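step: validate -> pass
step: tokenize input -> pass
step: predict -> running
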Amino acid sequence: MSTPADGQWWLATLGRNLVWARLRVREAGTAEVLDSDGNTLTYDSEDTARAALLDADFVAFDGLDADDALARGFDLHAVQPPQADSDEALRPLMFRKLDARA
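step: predict -> pass
step: emit ->
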């Protein structure tokens, strides 16, 4: 269940908003989640981090299909995980208001 070195993106919807989180697994087997507030939350394992994300109604972005996305209120092809050069630059991109086309 390992994730790529740059992390795995997770998302949740809150009304007409898309909320992102990034999961990274460290060499020691611990995991970190960058949340939508820009906080880095540390977990003892990848499984614990995934469970916390699932408990908060997040789903793995790479596991979504078009029907899953539509059920959450957006077009899968109109949404991509945020990109920035640093975690600090990612912070304002982690919470996105969905427009009528997304």
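step: describe -> Strands lie at 8-14, 17-25, 31-34, 40-43, 59-60, 95-97.
step: cleanup -> pass
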